[in-house]
Amino acid sequence: MPVPWEALIPTVLLVSMFGVTGTLANISFRAQNQWKPPRYGLESWDEMMIARDNKLTGHNRGQTSDPVIPPPSSS
């Protein structure tokens, strides 16, 4: 059975465009998350710690050992 060579070009284009789109989406999501992978299966304790980290550092993934919440910025 002969191979339809004409179908390889659109197939390669489709596969490569899906790959490029997925890679760019992954880079975008990680850039917004301080280059860390996303969190899955969060429990109430995890959500409470995320809220605490957000109050202490201003970002959901930031962590600090200082237990005092900084004053809000005036800007």
Low-confidence parts lasting 5 or more residues at pLDDT below 50? none
For the sheet with most strands, the description reads:
none
Helical residues, percent: 40-55%
The arrangement of helices and strands along the chain is HH
Structural class by sheet pairing and helices: mainly alpha
Number of helical regions:
2
**Overall tally of domains:** 2
Terminal CA distance reads 70 Å
- How big is the Rg? 22 Å
Give the amount of beta strand, in percent: under 5%
Shape: elongated
Number of beta strands: 0
The pLDDT mean sits at 87
Question: If you had to describe this structure to a student in words, what would you say it looks like?
Answer:
It is a single chain. By secondary structure, the chain is mainly alpha-helical. It folds into two domains: 32 residues; 35 residues, no CATH class. Helix content is 51%, strand content 0%. The chain is built from two helices and no strands. The protein is elongated, with a radius of gyration of 22 Å. It starts with 7 loop residues before the first helix and ends in an 18-residue tail after the last helix.
